[in-house]
C-alpha cells in the first residue's frame, strides 16, 4: 500500500496537519497513487480520527519511541523543516517534501530547506503551496543524501543559526 508519512517532530504544527488532511491535498495524493496517510502530530491540538479522511486510509499518533520504521515504510515523507526530522528522512533514503512553517519568527527552517533543495536532496514548500507542489513534484529528480559528514552539517547549522 503506497504510503505517505507526515511528521512534525516534537513541535506543534497544526496548520500542516490540517492542510495535509484537507480534501484538496488528500485528493491530490490519491491521484498520485497514494492510499495510506500516517500522521505524527506531536504536541499539536489536532489528532485526526481515522474516519476523518475520505480519500485515504488515515492513521495518526502523537509520539513513538522511534519513527524510523514509519519513515522506512513510507513512499513519501512530508515533514516540518526541523533538522532532526530532515536528516532522519534523508538518512532513510526516502523522498522528502519539507513544509516550512513560515509563521515562525527568524525562520532558520527556510534556510535549511532551501540549502538541501539547492543540493537536490528534497523539495520544499509552505502550507499554502502544498497542493501545487504535490501536483508538480518529480521525485525521480531528487539526489540521494550522502550521510557520514556530520561535521559539515553541524557547521552549516551553526552558520545558518548564527552560532559561529
TrEMBL record:
Q: Where in the cell is it found?
A: Endoplasmic reticulum
Domain spans labelled Glycosyl transferase family 28 C-terminal: 3-149
One GO BP: dolichol-linked oligosaccharide biosynthetic process
Q: What is its EC number?
A: 2.4.1.141
Q: State if Cytoplasm is listed as a keyword.
A: no
* Keyword vocabulary terms for this entry: Endoplasmic reticulum, Glycosyltransferase, Transferase
GO annotations of cellular component type: endoplasmic reticulum
**Superkingdom assignment:** Eukaryota
Q: Give, as one word, the top-level EC class.
A: transferase
One Pfam family assigned to this protein is Glyco_tran_28_C
Xref: InterPro entries: Alg13-like, Glyco_trans_28_C
One of the record's GO molecular function terms: N-acetylglucosaminyldiphosphodolichol N-acetylglucosaminyltransferase activity
- Its main subcellular localisation, reduced to a broad class, is endoplasmic reticulum
Q: Which residues form a coiled coil?
A: none
PANTHER family assigned: GLYCOSYL TRANSFERASE-RELATED (PTHR12867), N-ACETYLGLUCOSAMINYLDIPHOSPHODOLICHOL N-ACETYLGLUCOSAMINYLTRANSFERASE (PTHR12867:SF6)
Q: Which family does it belong to?
A: Belongs to the glycosyltransferase 28 family.
Q: What is the name attached to this protein's record? A: UDP-N-acetylglucosamine transferase subunit ALG13
Q: What is the lineage of its organism?
A: Eukaryota, Metazoa, Chordata, Craniata, Vertebrata
Amino acid at each position: 500500500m503506497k504510503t505517505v508519512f507526515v511528521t512534525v517532530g516534537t513541535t506543534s504544527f497544526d496548520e500542516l496537519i490540517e492542510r495535509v488532511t484537507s480534501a484538496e491535498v488528500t485528493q491530490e495524493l490519491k491521484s498520485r497513487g497514494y492510499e495510506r496517510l500516517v500522521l505524527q502530530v506531536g504536541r499539536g491540538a489536532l489528532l485526526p480520527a481515522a474516519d476523518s479522511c475520505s480519500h485515504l486510509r488515515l492513521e495518526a499518533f502523537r509520539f513513538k519511541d522511534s519513527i524510523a520504521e514509519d519513515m522506512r515504510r513510507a513512499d513519501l515523507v512530508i515533514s516540518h523543516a526541523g533538522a532532526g526530522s530532515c536528516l532522519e528522512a534523508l538518512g532513510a533514503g526516502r523522498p522528502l517534501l519539507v513544509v516550512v512553517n513560515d509563521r515562525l519568527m527568524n525562520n532558520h527552517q527556510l534556510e535549511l530547506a532551501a540549502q538541501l533543495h539547492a543540493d537536490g536532496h528534497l523539495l520544499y514548500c509552505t502550507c499554502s503551496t502544498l497542493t501545487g507542489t504535490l501536483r508538480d513534484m518529480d521525485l525521480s529528480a531528487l539526489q540521494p543524501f550522502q550521510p557520514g559528514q556530520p561535521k559539515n552539517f553541524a557547521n552549516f547549522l551553526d552558520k545558518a543559526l548564527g552560532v559561529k
